[in-house]
Fold these 2 entries.
Entry 1:
Amino acid sequence: MQNLSDIGVIRAVMEKHGFNFSKALGQNFLINPSVCPRMAEMCGADENTGVIEIGTGVGVLTAELAKRAKKVVAIELDSRLLPVLEETLSDFDNIEILNEDVMKVDLHALIREKFEGMKVVVCANLPYYITSPVITMLLESRLPVEAVTVMIQKEAADRLCTPVGSRESGAITVCTNYYSVPTQLFNVSRGSFMPAPNVDSTVIRLDIRKEPAVKVSDERKFFRIVKAAFAQRRKTVVNSVSSSLSVPKAEIIAALEQAGLDPNVRAEKLTMESFAALCENLV
Ligand code: SAM
């Protein structure tokens, strides 16, 4: 089997198929041989597991996942990679490639149809341009998956994995912590990719909670308020929510006070429980 993290092998296979990198599709391919085995190991893939991969590149992570998992379904948008993958992954009979945009795939149906009786995990080196929408979609769609292990920009990883109520937290922090228990696994330097991006990366794992971190009566309203509270993060929650959702300030002050919270508080100081209480008290 070819070493798919070897620059020479990648260059040769790309040249043979007339493939060149698309910046727009976030194509930075891994060339550090230690990263994919570690990711595949740490994502929970084993002989009873079905893995969804997003973005194959030349198949370097796909191969490591297929060595460990029962089945891998890899979603790749760039059809120019299909003949490449046919060659690079020819040793495996447990990989299926879907030439689709991950944001348009019905993942519930995919899991039902392709992974019957298996536990399911997601594992991907995500394209940078679409990190937050993909993670939000994976979490909000409540897929029957055990964990989501993804490589993303280091700064994004810090924000996703920080505790709610800390200085780096944002609306996406509330989302990841609401649906999952996030953990940073390891860092990957920019030199591990071809072409090298301008930023370093981190592999994170989101272990999906059986029940959300807090109970709220209306999830959509909860996240509407969270987004509004962080919309102007330098302002107080009262000012930010009031201007984003056109709610009178007096109502927000009353809701905060009812929850025992300071009316001058900023969003980054609110815990998950405080957001839940604010949501329940705000009509
Ligand atoms: N897994 C490979 C690796 O680690 O070397 C490639 C990772 S590269 C950062 C991201 C991959 O995602 C590229 O192959 C790109 O074509 C693919 N991609 C970009 N947008 C996508 C989308 N919306 N749906 C599915 N795949 C996408």
Note: The CA atoms of residues 78 and 99 lie 7 Å apart.
Entry 2:
Amino acid sequence: MDWMLTEEQKELQQMIAKFGKNEVLKRAQECDRTGEFPTDLYNKALEMGLHMIDLPEKFGGGGFDPVTAVIVQEELAKYDAGFSVSLFASGLAAKPLLIAGTDRQIQMFTDILAQGKMAAFCLTEPQAGSDAGASQTAAVRDGGGYVLNGRKCFITTGGMADVYVVFAMTDKSKGVKGMSAFIVERGAPGVSVGKEEDKMGIRLSNTTDVVFEDVRVPAENLIGAEGEGFKLAMKTLDMARPSCGAAAVGICQAAIDLCRDYALQRKTFGRPIAVNQAIQFKLADMEIATETSRQYVRYVAGLIKAGKPHSTEAAVAKAYASDSAVKVTQEAVQIFGGYGYSREYPVEKLYRDAKIFQIFEGTNEIQRMVIAGNVLKQKA
Ligand code: CAA
């Protein structure tokens, strides 16, 4: 389906493929195993501006549209999904600002990113994951600003980011309508990074708690109006979920590429295993799942680009692509047989990396709640 890509998108894809093959892939397996954090690799990607690729040009971003952004995210995820997700975490954090922030706020935020620094989106808490509205982090008005107290968890790039977008309750009595969003700089007194997760997969990404203790935040750092935070978080996730799906597609493609090569060279009973219909049907099902996910993800990115409603579609893209990634990588392990289960070979890493995509940015159960809720509202 590459004929649908513009020349610019193809060039960008090739540039990412070169970086991915020559730099990311070489380090990914080793860092996955040892837990070493590839700071140098991140620095290169930040120098290339990959963390700002989908931010508007007028604020110093790459200015690429959502379709191009998912193409880039997919390509990068082929080499390492955790690396890809981390680089796009800054764009996720920027979305509430792009939706409801002032030009001054966006500029302040992107000026930080332009220095090769990262941002993180802080919504989840120990007791508020799927039930995002149950957040306990409080922002209490105090003079000309707010004082924040609370703990966020499972924050992608929590320990790497220099600026956070934090969701906190300004009025708990109003439930989800009492949530507000703030820009908080890492250097503000009272901000600290808590425990880092030792994860099953996407081990090249950094996932931590972020703690706020009596953090003073000026009123001008409030994004949008007080009480708009929950809707802002939901709209942000609607825009980000196709991107999550795109990274899952990248994992699927990596699995297919490895399985194709392996099936053609691995012999059993004197013949390559690729001649067996059992293997061919697995490869065919992997291709069906991958290509349908890819095209649907790009379709939803197109809806966002066109300014069309996309809440249900974003949930479909995220759930379908991530369910596909788990199925595809599970089959990849099966095709590789005993070698698939060995850490010497790359497919078990893909399987571990794929699993998180069914969990973060809203579990696939939450996606199904969103989809079903919207289906039930439709009129015949
Ligand atoms: N867009 C705009 N408004 C929305 C909305 C959307 N998509 N979804 C809900 N709202 C509005 C509703 O209209 C409602 O407002 P009104 O009363 O004015 O109509 C208000 O928000 C409350 O809506 P609900 O009653 O539906 O809210 P709820 O408490 O029942 O929760 C939910 C709904 C869909 C389950 C939500 O809590 C949710 O999405 N949970 C999952 C959270 C999530 O995805 N977390 C991921 C964290 S980020 C992450 O993982 C990133 C990372 O680091 C990789």
Note: The longest strand covers residues 145-156.
